[in-house]
Amino acid sequence: MADIEKAKQRALELTREIDRHSSLYYERAAPEITDQEFDALLRELRDIEEKHPGLISPDSPTQKVGGTVLAAFEQVRHLVPMQSLDNTYSEGELGDFVRRIQKLLPGETIPLTIEPKVDGVAIALLYENGRLVRAATRGDGTAGDDVTENLKTIRAIPRQLPDGAPARMEIRGEIYLPKKLFAKINEERDEQGLPAFANPRNTAAGSLKQLDSRLVARRGLEAIFYGYGAFEGTLPRTQSEFIELLRGFGLPVPGKLWQAQTTDEALAAIRELGIIRHDFPYETDGAVLKVDILAQRERLGATAKAPRWAIAYKYEPEQAETKLRDITVQVGRTGVLTPVAELDPVFVSGSTVARATLHNEEEIVRKDIRIGDTVVIEKAGEVIPAVVKVRTDLRRGDEVVFQMPAHCPACGDPVVREEGFVAVRCGNLHCPAQLSRLLDHFAMRGALDIEGLGDKVALKLVEKKMVRTPLDLFDLQLADLAPLNLGTEDEPHTFGEKNAQKLLNALERSKTLPLWRWIHAIAIPDVGAVTARDLASLHQDPAALASSEILRDIVRLDERTVPRKDVSKEEREFLKQEADALGEKLLAAGAATKSKSAKHPRDVNPAIGPVAARAVLGWFASDEGRRTLERFAQYGIHPLGEEPSSASASGEGPLKGTTWVLTGALSAPREEIAEEIRQAGGTVSGSVSKKTTYILAGEDAGSKLEKARALEVKVLSEAEFREMVAV
């Protein structure tokens, strides 16, 4: 009796733990343990239930498939349940599988197929009369999330099949993020000081959860298909023929299938797949062994959770031990300092690794990584080398604790750590390591929109030392740009006269662009696109901005509204009177608004915050600011301020009277969405306060979202925002 109670208690503990990890994996795409560790928990629970069948309940994780259905999407029922596969890490258990199906079909020849197990998000496409009518995630196996609009953004998925398609056909497969794109996304996140994504599968899952399909389209997801659910028509005879049918319909399918009839042949195919899988564009965590003849599958049937005719063989994670010789620091294009592990070269997952990103100082502290340690290396998504753990048991005592430098290794300026962020950043926007990034910012659509000045061109101009500041672009001539080699010495690719002239024309057009674009383009610290617009609405030109009395009043108001504690009562009263006078002055200039609850003129909300006001005044007073004004005059650059848009000026429109803050990755540049808000009668602010009406939150929203929740500001998704604007 005691044994049964003990087993019951352990089964309950395992059920809770497995359900928690399932939620992290399927619903939040943020697993805390590896697939192998999860499978071990599930296997332990299954062993207990086999020994004590009375402990099995319908809610047991051993009886469930996948995760739950997300509330944000419409729920749809699968025409045929989507089961998951039994899996194993053991070659011996693979042999047991072959013997088991031979026992169930005695005397029959049972050909098998072996195909890559794509580590993606399970998906089902429903075609009716050749037209794609629905796409759904696995969900709980019975019902899933309708993600049709998101799936339509994947170019490889045809919306219409060619003639001859069945009247109804449900196709099963995986959505995945290509490994190269995963590496690029994480590189960009490192440069922005954001946490890296754990693996392509989680990133793909998070992308599919977006309510705005345009954001999904930007991720570059791909798909691969290999199975079916409902099928009205004549099925092919074998899995191999079914794959060819899908290929003929234009659907992406596995590039290679292996054939086998014995355990030894199946193991040989799995080992071969294990060698070449690193060359696939998708992450592969195993091989799937299936009965090839579809009629035999029907006779083999399925359990409540998994088919009896298939099994997944999972590869052990490829890891290698090596010595961490040093930790160097590289400066990204956004100024973020990223620590990099310099390793004794070691072969892992198909290539030799000598360096691995450590992302940030916080990760180094969390994993207790020290110079001189023996470390375990693994490739995240089979692409990005990462230090997964330290062999602390091999430490000798002479290992060195790493500290981030206090000064930028590229320019020597002090580094800064922004509040709420783990990233350490070089504060010098004109640091040589950041110049190409500064050129990208200068030319981007939300700034000067300079056609022809892309990443490659910017990098080459910096490499060739043809520009040292963005304004040096206006010194370039056709003869300088046309022969610019954007390729390599072995494979040259010149910019060309036509492209060079386009760039020069775009630079010429930029000279008369509105003032707000130029304020944004010159990258004054603490001044974004929203603040740039506010500045431009209050100042006629750059010279007026440089000597702005309005900005000085904003700084003075800030100093007088919160006087020092050590001042006398008389001085405090004098400062309050001055603040009232400044508040009246800013209100009269249109540089501040007064809330209904304000009792004094000093209780106003300046259009531009004191931090930005100080930054602008300080920048124009610096040598760089003075040189910029001089060069504006030299090149004939005359940007002018502009009136606010009619909707925002009149306060009319569906967003009348609302104040918005934007945060996270949105489907379009923030300035474009901010302009939509203005045109709809709303206002846009750069910071969250009690006066904020809504915060529009995209993917990876940070500290602004946390502050909004603390202040109980309503948080909206892009889909909800679109509904409001459309009213």
Distinctive features:
727 residues; D-amino Acid Aminotransferase, Chain A, domain 1; OB fold (Dihydrolipoamide Acetyltransferase, E2P); 5 domains; 7-stranded antiparallel β-sheet; 5-stranded mixed β-sheet; elongated
Question: What does this protein look like?
Answer:
This protein is α+β, with helices and mostly antiparallel strands and 727 residues long. It has 5 domains: 2-63, Helix Hairpins (Orthogonal Bundle); 86-314, 2-Layer Sandwich (D-amino Acid Aminotransferase, Chain A, domain 1), CATH 3.30.470; 319-401, Nucleic acid-binding proteins (OB fold (Dihydrolipoamide Acetyltransferase, E2P), Beta Barrel), CATH 2.40.50.140; 429-510, 5' to 3' exonuclease, C-terminal subdomain (DNA polymerase, domain 1, Orthogonal Bundle), CATH 1.10.150; 645-727, Rossmann fold (3-Layer(aba) Sandwich), CATH 3.40.50.10190. The protein is built from 26 helices and 26 strands. The strands form 7 sheets. Strands 12, 13, 14, 16, 17, 19 and 20 form a 7-stranded antiparallel β-sheet that branches. A 5-stranded mixed β-sheet has the order 2-11-10-3-9. Strand 23 (659-663), helix 24 and strand 24 form a beta-alpha-beta unit. The protein is elongated and about 100 Å long.
